[in-house]
């Protein structure tokens, strides 16, 4: 994995091999993701409920995203680093959206942004791409809309399947370089992948996408209740607690110096 990943090299992987993506929120997790073989690192607004103790991603601000993006990019990996545009900003005036994206790239060091939303945001995505800001789309279940739509699997009805396909094609046509497909019925994901020329990156959407993304804390077993699709490859929470317990026992067994 010594070759530097860019938006162009990522797009070239469609139909060649599956793409591996992980979230990271600091320099340590960024280095782990790179060393483990990730093609792309996402500084997700999932930092809110994964690391910062929030119940969802709605409370994550632009300043939080800039802070964690900068921490990730200080790891100086050879991986493409994309940062989430936080709650509702994509629906603001374009000047404010552009300013927020500049902050993520200039102060946060990210190489591009991820934006949740479909066809209604295609004009904004097109203008950002024209301004030189790489955009990764995100369709299907949208965590930033938890208060209006909840966390629910998408694509279970014909009407919803049609809407999701329209969203995917609109975002791709607007110039997005890749597309996250979250919690969409796995029977629909191959159709989405076939309908667009850019890579589709699935999470909880089966194996029909061009790649997969996971929250690194879920993958490593740091979280207590990972989603059912995560399938942790380690149990670091258990191992960390055991290590602390062993150390605490050693401390308590030491003789007093007095």
Report what the structure shows.
- This protein is of the alpha/beta class and 258 residues long.
- The protein has one domain (7-219): Alpha-Beta Barrel (TIM Barrel), CATH 3.20.20.60.
- The protein is 40% helix and 15% strand.
- The protein is built from eleven helices and eight strands.
- It has helices spanning 7-11, 27-36, 47-50, 62-73, 94-106, 122-130, 146-149, 158-173, 189-195, 216-219, 236-253; strands at 19-23, 40-43, 80-84, 112-116, 135-140, 178-182, 200-203, 211-214.
- It has an eight-stranded parallel β-barrel with strand order 1-2-3-4-5-6-7-8, surrounded by six helices.
- Helix 4 packs parallel to helix 5 (94-106).
- The termini are far apart.
- The model has no long low-confidence stretch (mean pLDDT 96).
